[in-house]
Amino acid sequence: MTNLDLSKAYGLIYTVLLLFAYYIGRYVVLKSILETFRICIDRVDDALKDNNVSEEEFVKIWNDCYIRLKSLLPPKTQK
After folding, report:
1. Where are the domains of the chain?
2. pLDDT of residue 1
3. DSSP line for 2-65
4. Which of 40, 45, 58, 73 is deepest in the core (most CB within 10 A)?
5. What are the residues whose beta carbons fall under 8 Å from the beta carbon of 73, sequence distance 6 or more?
6. CB count, 10 Å around CB of 66?
7. Per-residue pLDDT for the chain (79 aa), expressed as one digit of tens each?
8. How wide is the angle at C-alpha 37 spanned by C-alphas 33 and 39, nearest 5°?
9. CA angle 53, 55, 60 (to 5 degrees)
10. Which residues neighbour 43 within 8 Å (Cβ) at sequence distance 6 or greater?
């Protein structure tokens, strides 16, 4: 009979679980950013279609969406 070395199996399972958790985390963050982007685009689209929205209100909606989306993106790095 052969002895099974479970430490290698546990190391492999641990590595696979870490990779799985990493990619699930990246997916959740990206999904959140895309959802925020979709909401902002919908708000801007509704403001463009509505004839009762003044230019100042549209600029406020646009700037709010721009600031919200810019805050979700990672900061630029110096090269």
Report:
1. 28-73
2. 46
3. PPP-HHHHHHHHHHHHHHHHHHHHHHHHHHHHHHHHHHHHHHHHHHHH-TT--HHHHHHHHHHH
4. 40
5. 33
6. 12
7. 466 677 777 888 999 999 999 999 999 989 988 998 999 999 999 998 988 989 999 999 999 998 988 888 878 877 6
8. 120
9. 90
10. 61, 65
